[in-house]
Specification:
Number of helices: 3
Region (Disordered): 180-199
Largest sheet: 5 strands, antiparallel
Helix content: 25-40%
InterPro entries: YcnI-copper_dom, YcnI-like_sf
CATH topology of the largest domain: Immunoglobulin-like
Oligomer: single chain
Number of strands: 12
Strand order of the largest sheet: 6-7-4-10-11
Domain YncI copper-binding: 30-177
CATH superfamily of the largest domain: Uncharacterised protein YcnI-like PF07987, DUF1775
Structural class: alpha+beta
Distance between the termini: 131 Å
Order of helices and strands: HEEEEEEEEEEEEHH
Radius of gyration: 37 Å
Transmembrane segments: 203-224
Number of domains: 2
Pfam families: DUF1775 (PF07987)
């Protein structure tokens, strides 16, 4: 009886754990931006990775909203086969200066739409590449995204990061920005010889000694030859 009860309890626990994991699985597969960090003031190529959470429907459209409070002057989209991309611009409250030029409008939304047969199928994902910069001098950029499914469902990945570090229910893709590090100072010149230089200091003397030794051997051979010829009897 005890063993039967234990087996039943273990079965119930396993089923409950599988049910909980099944619920948690799709929530973890949210839209992300990769890499997740970049440098302030620079340019970056980022990829918005879009997994398909549904078991029956396909992802047909993706909308990514760029933050209007920290706009970037240059935004370009890499073509994705089977998808069309449209970048929408908006007027800026404060003109943005990029390379000594003032920009009064900037891209604030990018929409990718799939052609028939190119949708993101269940169990697959797609990446959408964007080049943007110069990146603003702020700690992060939050890209609120909307994911559209073929069954009419819309998943809104728009929750901003929490102050306590816990992940929200529908987190928006976040690009962390770090300050540009200063260029490393050039090393000071040194008068000390390196080991290679120290090893090369005696090389000319060694070569000269070798040459003198060879000359000595040649002279000795010539002297020996003359002495041998002098000892031969004359006829």
């Amino acid at each position: 009886m005890k063993q039967t009860a234990l087996r039943r309890a273990a079965t119930v626990t396993a089923v409950a754990a599988a049910f909980v994991l099944g619920l948690a699985g799709p929530a973890a597969a949210h839209v992300t931006v990769n890499p997740s960090t970049a440098t302030q003031g620079g340019y970056a190529k980022v990829s918005f990775r879009v997994p398909n959470e549904s078991d029956t429907a396909s992802t047909t459209k993706l909308e990514v909203n760029l933050p209007v409070d920290s706009p970037v002057g240059s935004v370009s989209v890499k073509p994705v086969p089977g998808w069309t991309a449209v970048a929408e611009k908006s007027k800026l409250a404060t003109p943005l200066k990029v390379h000594d030029h003032e920009i009064s409008e900037a891209v604030t939304k990018i929409t990718w739409t799939a052609a028939s047969g190119s949708e993101i199928k269940p169990g697959t994902f797609q990446e959408f590449d964007v080049s943007l910069g110069p990146l603003p001098e702020t700690e992060q950029m939050v890209f609120k995204a909307l994911q559209y499914y073929s069954d009419g469902a819309v998943v809104r990945w728009i929750d901003e990061p929490t102050t306590d570090g816990t992940e929200p229910e529908s987190p928006a893709p976040v690009l962390k920005l770090t300050a540009a590090s200063a260029a490393p100072a050039a090393p000071a010149p040194t008068t000390e010889a390196t080991p290679a230089e120290e090893g090369n200091d005696g090389l000319p003397y060694a070569i000269a000694g070798l040459i003198m030794g060879l000359i000595g051997i040649v002279l000795s051979l010539l002297a020996y030859r003359k002495a041998s010829q002098a000892k031969l009897p004359t006829v």
